[in-house]
Specification:
Number of strands: 12
Strand content: 15-25%
CATH topology: TIM Barrel
CATH superfamily: Aldolase class I
Helix content: 25-40%
Order of helices and strands: EHEHEHEHHEHEHEEEEEEHHH
CATH class: Alpha Beta
Strand order of the largest sheet: 7-8-9-6-5-4-3-2-1-10-11-12
Largest sheet: 12 strands, mixed
Mean pLDDT: 88
Number of domains: 1
Distance between the termini: 23 Å
Length: 326
Amino acid sequence: MIVDKFNRVHDYLRISLTDNCDLRCFYCMPEEDYQFTPNQQLMQADEIEAIAKAYVQEGVKKIRLTGGEPLVRKDFADILRRLGKLNVEITMTTNGTRLHEFVEVIKNSGIKSLNISLDTLQKDRFILMTKRDKQEQVMRNIQLMLDNDINVKVNVVAMKGVNDEEIIDFVKWTKDTPVHIRFIEFMPFDRNKWNSDKVITLQQILDKVSTQFEIEPLSRLPHETAKKFKVPGHAGTFAVISTMSAPFCGDCNRIRLTADGKMKNCLFSQSETDILGAYRKGEDIKPLIYQNISEKKEALGGQFTIDMEKIETTALHNRTMISIGG
């Protein structure tokens, strides 16, 4: 087992397949002319399989594919097929724009649940936030996944003055549609224009929803990042990922691999370990995995606290969100 000094067992690996994406969300990708990682610097399909296998041998039970947008990888189907041989739970986070091209691939892989990022239900606002006209395609693909018995969690980065007026609309969506909305508190990353005034906290979201709905809290499973709720009688649920106001670091079980093969023990960690470089040199990567986890901080990468007013974004050392992989 991969255990840190706080006795947290790490059995959930998130693998970014690419830092490329077909959308341009400002909180994730800081510039339109973002310089993507050259292909030769990315983990290749066989390398992803071998490196993931090493983690599985040490106790990883779940793998999530992320990006950028994982479905822009031309070899996505091959990667999914390779990982499917590892006999662990496989899932994915996607922006949903290309899911209609991969329905059979996803079904045949055994994926039972997907996270789909969608920050607005309004077409015009979607174009403003992503610089692309693909909102209707995403909505069709969400329904397509539901029609194919795939569980859908919708990730909504909630931001004051941007999409906070839609919180009620997202909850209304769960009345007749079995989607699981997950509001995510706006988090600071390199050059994403974060400030505390844009953050809508867990309590503020609950207060807003409570003005129109009765809310029933749902039990939290171990390692879950989302605090879950349900409106009685609704087909779906909603939740809040309260990274900024009420972190869930105490039982964190996550390991991250960036698309260029760097291991991060926390979304906010400053340090990285070059797993891909070591693998390409023929080195044993398992000692590096354990060393990286042994250095994990107790909370939030050791970079800040929940006192958001004291966060100095210029003092944070991290990548952009798109280059981490979420």
